[in-house]
Amino acid sequence: MKDRDSFIECLSPKQLAELDACTQCGECLKYCPVQEVTGNKAISPPEKIRMFREFIRAAEGLKARLFGSRIDDKLLQDFVKAVYECTTCGACGQACTVGIFTQRLWPFLRKEMVRRGLGPIGAQAETPDAVKNTGNPYKKPAEERFKPWFPENVRVSEKSEIAYYAGCTGAYEAQPMVKGDVIVLNAIGVEFTMLPPEEEVCCGFPLFITGQHDMLEDLVKRLVDAYSDRGVKTLLCSCPCCVNMMTRDWPVFYGRELPFRIRHITQFVADAINNGRLVIKKKLKERLIYHDPCYLSRGVGITEEPRMVLESISGVKLLEFDRNRANSRCCGAGGAARKVYHENAVAIGRLTIDEAVAKKADRLILSCPACYAKVNEAMEGYDKKIRIVDIMELVSGLIEGK
Ligand code: SF4
Ligand code: SF4
After folding, report:
1. Predicted structure pTM score
2. Ligand 1, atom 6: nearest CA belongs to which residue?
């Protein structure tokens, strides 16, 4: 590592002020899911912030200027692990007494680590090449993106004011969810378009969240221009990470306001139910519990529309987790940590299963492909069982009369 190499190049003035503002009060500690399952103090927000402030001081302070910087390598290694072990769920920021926007801050600390050659970690480093070569982070062929799950009876228009983006995780790892999305759109009777599988590439979230931002401008421009060319005015998507990336970050990487608006599938479907374009006739006499995905609730503030959809199903009793809406607990899959810190992710996922089972829910309803994949995985070999279903998978099943 070079002496006096800055630690603040990737951070905005606001983020520097946030780092400075942490009072080390520890209020956020109660909410960190990783700390809950590992007991690892280094992961905690005040500890990460304290360490990072030390690096800044060691690299930029008066002593560093006079005598050169000295950074403890072990401390730096611990920090890199902590900043990548975090699921970026943002629960700490929600509870922060001085309002630090941690869901935004942590990814930029990761970007700083990437700039210094210390991140990303493990298989995350393969993401840029995977996206470049296959269009998705899973290295799956483009021809398998839609073919295995797309229903034959659903028609996709060449051009339309409404477009649907399936997303990589949904298309390759949570197919009942994306299949449910298009069945419901079809039932609403809305004309929609989609990009062909080789053009519907990754939204950029796995690159953004791991701090690997180099390809993002190009990726975002390709996607935005492709939708724009099809006359799209509304882009629908069910993956909270994609929706978050599109809403918050696409305009930044595109360089200006997007020529269309972004909506989560539950917003569109809740509207269709409210204005009578979708009627769910079939009853469901079940106790359902809905888990708020971090990037949907804390990320873009969507908490009520999924509940409106579920409550519109006759016979349903909707239960709540103790921590719900903007205070929900992460499923363990976020922040690209699920593949690298698999055990943490499984342990966190099991906390969600435990609570759903304790509340005697018949089914656990999810609305995120990463949650869907991870909570299903957490159930493997676990003695507690609950039926897991995506919200549109459920609705599509009731429409189709399964
Ligand atoms: S974002 Fe979530 S996992 Fe990361 S430190 Fe905060 S509470 Fe813990
Ligand atoms: S709640 Fe906010 S101010 Fe307090 S320790 Fe956590 S990050 Fe720092």
Report:
1. 0.95
2. 92
